[in-house]
Amino acid sequence: MCIYVCRMGYGNVPGYNRLWREKTGGAADAGEETVVLPHGYKLVWSDEFTGVPGRKILPDSTRWWYETGGRGWGNNELQHYVAGIIEEDTLAYLTDGTLKLKAIKLAEPLEGNLYASVRLNSVPSWQYGYFEARLKLPEGYGTWPAF
After folding, report:
1. 23: part of which helix (H) or strand (E)?
2. Which of 49, 64, 76, 143 is a plausible cystine mate for 59, CB 3.0–4.6 Å?
3. What was the pLDDT predicted at 25?
4. Could you please report the per-residue DSSP string of 62-103?
5. Based on the number of CB atoms within 10 Å of its own CB, is 65 exposed (0-12), middle (13-18) or buried (19 or more)?
6. What is the distance between the alpha carbons of residues 50 and 136, in angstroms, rounded to a whole number?
7. pLDDT digits (tens, 9 = 90+) for 60-101
8. What DSSP element (H or E) covers 3?
9. Residue of 63, 28, 67 whose CA lies nearest to 47
10. Residue 1, pLDDT score
């Protein structure tokens, strides 16, 4: 999983211009992915979720923050959002170049919620821009993944 945020610079950029990823094939490392920006955009923030291969680590707290609580968030969500770890379970971690977010059913309700999960936000925020992410989302009844 990787996330890119771009801001439009000055000038007229047609609506079909967008941020996209391209395999370089013959660049520094064969097959290495690079970010290709359309005219008028500049990359202002990204996270490739690199870590220690084969080892779980927590997301970088200088780049990400946890929104916590179980208030339903305006759409009657059933989970309580925690700051990455609950009991002995880590719900947000990096491993093998990806960010993994997990939801679990709790043995005992937490402030009335039977499920726990993570609501993770980037430290910088933007009102406008072009955002791109490569995601693998869960499927199934009751899942509402969001980006």
Report:
1. strand 20-23
2. 64
3. 40
4. TTEEE--B-SGGGTT--EEE-SSEETTEE-EEEETTEEEE--
5. middle
6. 17
7. 999 999 999 987 877 788 889 999 998 889 999 998 888 899
8. strand 3-8
9. 63
10. 44
What span, in angstroms and rounded, lies between the C-alpha atoms of 57 and 34?
24
The answer to pTM > 0.90 is no
Among 101, 78, 105, 99, which residue's Cα sits nearest to residue 90? 101
Token pair belonging to 4: 């890119």
Whether residue 21 contacts residue 133, with contact meaning beta carbons closer than 8 Å, is answered with: no
How buried is 13 (Cβ within 10 angstroms: 0-12 exposed, 13-18 middle, 19+ buried)?
A: middle
Q: How many helices (H) and strands (E) does the chain have?
A: 0, 14
Give the CA-trace dihedral at 130, 147, 31, 13, to 10 degrees. -10
Q: Nearest 5°: CA angle at 58, between 57 and 61?
A: 140
Instruction: Tell whether the model's pLDDT for residue 26 goes beyond 70.
Output: no
Spatial contact of 119 and 81, defined as CB atoms under 8 Å apart? yes
Q: What is the pLDDT of residues 97-139, one digit of tens each?
A: 888 999 899 999 999 899 999 999 999 888 877 787 878 888 8
